[in-house]
Amino acid sequence: MAATRTFSIIKPDATRRNLTGAVTKMLEEAGLRVVASKRIQMSREQAEGFYAVHSERPFFGDLVDFMIGGPVVVQVLEGEDAVKRNRDVMGATNPSDAAEGTIRKAYAESIEANSVHGSDSDENAKIEIDFFFKPEEIVG
Ligand code: IDP
Ligand code: MG
Predict the structure, then answer these.
(1) Which residues form the active site (predicted)?
(2) Any idea which residues carry the catalytic annotation?
(3) Which atom in ligand 1 lies closest to the alpha carbon of residue 67?
(4) What's the gap in Å between 136 CA and the centre of ligand 1?
(5) CB 27 within 8 Å of CB 89
(6) How far apart are alpha carbons 96 and 122 in whole angstroms?
(7) Is 18 a residue whose pLDDT tops 80?
(8) Atom 15 of ligand 1 has which residue's CA nearest to it?
(9) Structural domain boundaries enclosing 8
(10) What CATH number has the domain bearing residue 21?
(11) What's the total number of domains in the chain?
């Protein structure tokens, strides 16, 4: 199967605890390659746009505040079946449901401050990659 790409965010709870390297190591050990990476401070407008699909959910305002509460690391990851591979190593949204060996089991603080984002489909991966990266910033 050919390599595909997905989009990842190392969230503010993880950057605050200096876990960028630890999280990236787990992604790499899961067979994913970082082909683009940058540390940014998301604006409110960016966070609202990125999470627009969740705008009707009760936690939307808190989620946006959390995501702009500190720096994040946005990444493009490449690997075989990258979307599923990343979702598998991320673990369940709620860390209390996350399996052993997953990033959220190891590091998430709560259902909100759960250390990582990962695209949920190839279609959304493309949209999310394009939201943060220019083609020339991705070097596979
Ligand atoms: P996912 O990140 O596992 O794909 P989604 O349902 O897409 O989960 O939710 C996006 C993000 O919104 C989660 O990663 C988490 O930060 C936050 N979130 C999801 N559900 C809740 C909740 O019930 N309370 C607070 N925050 C939540
Ligand atoms: Mg999601």
Answers:
(1) 117
(2) 117
(3) 16
(4) 30
(5) yes
(6) 27
(7) yes
(8) 112
(9) 3-137
(10) 3.30.70.141
(11) 1
